Amino acid sequence: MSETSGRVLTEAEKARMERNRIKALHLRQAKLVAHPYQKKNVNAIAGEDSIIKVQGTKYIDSGGGFLLEQPVISTPSLQSVSKEIESGAPSTDIVQVSNDAITIPVNFEECLDCGDAFVESYLFSNFGYAVCDKCRDPDDRHALITRTEAKAEYLLKDCDFDSREPPLRYISRKNPHNVRWGEMKLYLLMQVEQRAMEVWGSEEELSRQHELREEKREVTKVKKYNKHMKQLRMEMRSSLFTKETKSTHVHEFGPDTYNEDDDNYTHACTTCNYTETYEKM
Description:
Blueprint: E1 3-4, E2 7-8, H1 11-31, H2 42-46, E3 51-54, E4 57-61, E5 67-69, H3 78-86, E6 94-95, E7 104-105, E8 109-110, E9 117-118, H4 122-127, E10 144-146, H5 147-154, H6 158-162, E11 170-173, E12 184-188, H7 189-200, H8 203-238, H9 243-246, E13 257-259, E14 264-268, E15 275-278
Antiparallel strand pairs: 1-2, 3-4, 4-5, 6-7, 8-9, 10-12, 11-12, 13-14, 14-15
């Protein structure tokens, strides 16, 4: 009985491995094409006379001024594959087609919830979270959250998503509110919560940061309100000014007084304390 990763494989896993092996063989046979312009049977179209051998390599004269290399395909037939399955030969995790074929390893992941082995799943393919599709709970534990909501709820910055190792994986979706807006980035909620714990350390610290930011918002609102009220008061006071109060004061001088010692004249304003001294020519 074969073992993979130190444990015994079940019958369902063996059957799945056989299906994957046959699928890999079919894909391999479909990809073995010598030239993109070559038909399925070049020898039948061009004829055996058009085959030219140059330094041990066979080429086919296309008749258009260039040569096509003759394909050499060495793959097992479907009959041999079916006989191997019917004979009950033990399955392996690596598919070997021919000496120059590509080996395709089949890696199994273990579900973190149920413990079953699986090859791929929605959460593992998009977010690298090892949970199979049958255990996925998209409405609760495995819900998705937008980047904007995650930054507001968990007080994260852009560097926490992109620069901190490892960067959080996401999927892009069209904005449901307006298709002309930018695409939304959806993150796995469980991974966002883990990243928030790495940044803040605990849920108590995250709650305290929320309270501090709420207090800052209240102080900002009060300052903005006081500034707005001060501006309204200034506008109200300025509306009480009349045109006369804003005009320049004009002096109204009284009679002149002659000063014999200095040989000049002095007169004072009758409405203010201004005094002017001058000389008469």
